[in-house]
Amino acid sequence: MKFLADLHIHSSYSLASAKNINVENLYVASRMKGLTVLGTGDFTHPGRLNELKEKLILDNNGLYRLKNKIKNSCEEFIPQSCKGLFRFIPTGEVCNIYKKNGKTRKIHSILLFPDLNLVEKLNGKIKKFGKTESNGRPILKLDVINLFEIILEISDKAMLIPAHIWTPWYSIFGSKSGFDCIKECFEDFSQYIFAVETGLSSDPDMCRKVSDLDNRTLISNSDAHSPSKLGREANIFDTDLSYRAITEAMWFRKYKLNI
């Protein structure tokens, strides 16, 4: 089936985010925008993770849906024409700040996980490197390679996707604190970087002229800090509606991208 997915958002636990960006409002706004799959955002924050565990339930397809009581309370705010199938996928964003090759690096990454219980294990391991409770997008004093090692030890189904790759600050290709190529950043782990996020100010067609991105999937997302910004950029998938199908589509580039 074809569906729209927005995989990079934030919650009220992130700095400079709207206070009303909770699970219920995300559900309503997503259906109004025509989204079928939405990243949860900010799953590294303990408060956000508790909210997700309280309000969502794991479906048999590896994605999450609203518990029936909560879903029913939201339905009155959604026009009949906008109602339909909807799922959440566990996501978060982290900021790694560290020194490498004599330069301070500041890298943002999107994380996808197949299970919130596994996210809890991740949070237990990374909290020693930063204050995960202070921001929905935590700053970790840790090489992004070491973060990726931790992630893959917990689940080989998880994904790390470099975020908004051309942003001058806080991105893998950023002119201020990034790298010249993916290999320089991830070394032997470069083979596991299956996708990158273009970013709001980036042109995907121009990205395709960069040879370092050959054989890697390009995705674009809203990076929303309020419900109204959901879906301003999103991805069209033509797959089964499951965690496995969504991640494998990015691994093998078997999907379509809409900007």
UniProtKB/TrEMBL annotation:
Among InterPro entries, the record links this protein to: Pol/histidinol_Pase-like
Question: What is the top-level taxon of the source organism?
Answer: Bacteria
Instruction: Quote the Gene3D superfamilies the UniProt record gives.
Output: Metal-dependent hydrolases
This one is known as DNA helicase UvrD
Which taxonomic lineage is given here?
Bacteria, Pseudomonadati, Thermodesulfobacteriota, Desulfobacteria, Desulfobacterales
